[in-house]
Every structure is written in C-alpha cells, then in structure tokens.
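[job 0417] fold request received: Alcohol dehydrogenase
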Amino acid sequence: MAAIPDVMRAAVLADPGHLRVEELPVPEPGPEDVLVRVHRASLCGTDLKIRSRAFFPDGGPPPGTFVPGHEYAGRVVAVGSTVDEFRVGDRVVTEAHRGCMRCANCLSGSYTACLNSGRHEKGHRTQGMTVNGGFADYVLNHVSTLHRLPDEVGFDAGVVLTTVGTVMHAFDVLGDLLVGAGVAVLGPGPIGLLAVQVANALGAELVALLGTRESRLELGKIFGADLALDVRDGTAVERVRAVTSGQGVDVVLECSGAPAAVDEALGLVKRGGVIVLVGFFDQPVTADLNRAVMNGVTLHTVRGEGAGSLARGISLARRGRLDTGRLVTHHFPLEEVTEAFDTYAERRGDAIKVMLDIADDPAAS
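[job 0417] inference complete; emitting structure tokens
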C-alpha cells in the first residue's frame, strides 16, 4: 500500500452549475473513522441538484470548500484508533447515510430519517451532501457506513450496489415476502432497472416495467421484466390490469419522479396493495388520492439505504443474481468531471451510470 500523501485531488463545488478539481488536504481519521482511497465513484440525479445548488436551502457551502459524491467504492488505507472491523487493504463500498444514533428514529433503525439530519455536531453525516464525499482521491467514512466487497464483486459493481441498497430498502417496507407477488416498476432509470432484477431475485411472479425510453425498456426485458411498456400510448395501465385478471399488481415501485406517475401507480395497484415512492419529484404532484383511500392502498416512502439493505444487495451480487455491468455506460477520469456531469445530465450516448475512475490502479475494476 502506497504512502498516504498530504494533499489530494478533489472535485469541489464552484459557482452554481460548476465543479472544479483542486488540491485539498487529505483528511485524518478520528477514532471511529476509516480513510478510504476512492477507486470508483458514480453520479446520480441528486448530484445534479447539488451541482446546481438547488439541493441546498441556503445556497450551500462557499465555493471551493465542498466535495460531492455519495456513491463510491475503494480500499481502506487508514483506520481510527477504535476501528477493528476493517484492515488496511480491504475493498469496501459505502452507505451514504450515517444517522446521529441518538434520536428516536435512529434508535428504531430509521437512520435515513434522522431527526438531527445535517447536524454534524450530533453525529449525523450524509456523504457528499452534508459532509465531504467521494469525488476525491480520499474520503472519510464512519466505520458503521462501510461494507466489505467480496472478491467476486469489482469496484464498478460495488458502486452500483449503493443504488441496489435503495431498491432493497423499498422492498423492505412491504413487511412481507415478495414470492408470488405481482410487481410494477415505474421508471426505467438505474433504480427501476435494478428493481426489476431484485424483484425477480426475490421471487416475484410478475414484473412489469413502465417508462418512456425504448432502449431502457428493452434493457428491462433483458433483466427479466415480463412486460416492458411505453406509457405514452395510454394503454400501459390497462395492459397490466389485463394480465392480472383486472385486479392490478400487489406492489408498485414509483422510481421515475414523473408528475403523472403517482396517479399511474394508483391505477396499477390492486385493492389493498402497496405503493412505494422511491423517486424524487422535481415539482409538486397532483394525484387522486381518493383512489387510495377508497381501495385501502398503502403508500410508503423511502430515502436511500435502510438498515442492512446494502449488505443484502452485496449478497445478491456475490451470488451472481444481479447484472450491474450493463448499467455502467461511461467512464471518465476525475479531471473530466464536468464532461461526466454533462454526459449524465444530457443522457449522451444513453447514459445510465456514469463512473469517475479516480484511482489509477489497474486492479481497481
């Protein structure tokens, strides 16, 4: 393992809509921290909001001081004085969220809904959102947010598993087995395409994927969707109901964040069924909630990974149950972070998961 330098490269927030690569001091781990040498990091929709500063109610931190990035994987290069769970050289992937572990929500396991969110002095951290993240050579993580990667899982796949954690969390809230259930997934983005795979791995009887991008719907078929339907023709909901004897599906995962998607979900779900809102909405949503009330439909929301969800995703990957390679469409070096963001935002080349290759170690993949 190479010596740890005093300074590192980091992509920092500049003016709204811009990032720049600068040199920052390498952070030093506290007693419960782990210093990770980042090998891969990927972009998601939240990163676009962070770059624009729309994510921050107060406009965000001063230019040149904040490092985004909450999806990343790498190797342990240093550990704090109390850390014995990991050793230098371990390959790891991170959870973004670390709750304060003292509020009522955290103590019940709901640390992504921490009541002290944003209060670093009380122990809360969200990598790349409230504390510096992984668009850098090195990043600090609390020991509780790291998971060891099996030898069978490369760094690219490891980063995608952070998104799988969100999908697992969405299925967690059902409180029931998925075996034999009918599932509809709205939105064939990374979360939706992974949801198709996870639903199949968990034993769903029917998996329908609905969206608007033909190439993504075709990919959904490869991943095991029994139906892959374009919602623009206006018949998708009826076609799903037709194959469920008119009843609708047991579970709907709304992963698109589209304004009309909640109403579509209400049209897809059966009486007494469950809708889980996973995607973030860019604007207020209008939906006929009487359909939920009159039909006993339960609505849940999730944010990020839940307790143990990423670990279960890693287990699926280790057993070969997930195809993450087809989702990684682009690679850029850290110095080309602006090009990476623009590629992702504009969906150039049908971009799905855009990776930053941060370590130059050929063993990083």
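[job 0417] notes: The chain has a mean pLDDT of 95. The radius of gyration is 20 Å.
[job 0417] exit 0
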